[in-house]
Amino acid sequence: MGRIRTVKPELFIHDELYDAEHNSGLPCRLAFIGLLTLVDREGRFHWKPRQIKAQLFPYDELEFSQVLEALKNSGFLTHYQVEGKQYGVIKSFANHQKINAKEAKSKLPAPENGEEIKPEPPLTERNSSEKVIPVNSGELHSRTPEGQENFSGEGIGIEIGDLGTELEHGTEHGRELCLKDPCRVDTRPDADEQTGEVILSSEPLPEATDPKARASSQQKQARAIDDIFQYWQTIMDHPNARLDEKRRKLIRNALKTGYAVNDLKTAILGCSYTPHNMGDNDRGQRYDG
């Protein structure tokens, strides 16, 4: 995931941090500790609430932008913008962390080189009216794309042989989960709407011999493939990509090999955290197939 950081005992009796959590009704203390592991050696990070939420609170239903706002409003974070991109920095980071000399230098711009985004009025209660859209919902496609798909068919991609490598990669450069509405993005399997049965939670698709069972298995597999592809569209920001037969076959073969939906989603997310795959390479090209 992130980096090893130091948490001092005083953090747990920090009045202002407690007040931020108490007043907002949000997990500010745990989020602040989590942010310590994600920021670079200067305490800077990409201000991408959905991407950070996927890393720190993958199983929780909350709007993480509210958590960041609560921490910002309480003075723990500086929110700033440079050339249209938003960043954050933990204000007191350098005062409380001893950084390993081998850790890479920050690649993010400093706050003084940008324009600060001022805090909004403090939250007094949790906003429970936000709409939750599962990743495999058809509403995912309601997003209005700002540009055309820039998918490259060549490159490393998410091949089966690379799955273990992708699962182990760190989180230097995350991809924002770009949906029009707030959504819950995690790697948990979805349950069948009719039976409540968990689809492909940890086991590969069964080889059915009975015609009815085979048809049911094929329907579940088709739903799983659609789910994985839509997750890839969201994470890699390819809203115009088409689920053609080549892509469908790649996902189907991965499932047959024994990987579960969880595994493939985790590999996709891991790829999105890999600088080389995201274009930080000598060719300046993304390998996110």
Topology:
Elements: H1 15-24, H2 28-38, E1 44-46, H3 49-56, H4 64-73, E2 77-82, E3 85-90, H5 93-96, E4 115-116, H6 163-168, H7 211-236, H8 245-257, H9 261-272
Antiparallel strand pairs: 1-3, 2-3, 2-4
> How many separate domains make up the residues?
2
Number of alpha- plus pi-helical segments:
9
Largest sheet: 4 strands, antiparallel
Order of helices and strands: HHEHHEEHEHHHH
Shape: elongated
Structural class: mainly alpha
Distance between the termini: 22 Å
Whole-angstrom Rg:
20 Å
Strand content: 5-15%
In short:
The protein has 2 domains: about 10-115, Arc Repressor Mutant, subunit A; about 140-270, no CATH class. About 35% of the residues lie in helices and about 5% in strands.
Question: What report would you give on this structure?
Answer:
- The protein is mainly alpha-helical and 289 residues long.
- The protein folds into 2 domains: 9-116, Arc Repressor Mutant, subunit A (Orthogonal Bundle); 138-272, no CATH class.
- The protein is built from 9 helices and 4 strands, in the order H-H-E-H-H-E-E-H-E-H-H-H-H.
- Strands 1-3-2-4 form a 4-stranded antiparallel beta sheet, covered by helices on one side.
- Strand 2 and strand 3 (85-90) form a beta hairpin.
- The longest helix is centred in the last third of the chain and has 26 residues, at 211-236.
- The protein starts with 14 loop residues before the first helix and ends in a 17-residue tail after the last helix.
- Mean pLDDT is 75; it is low at 122-205.
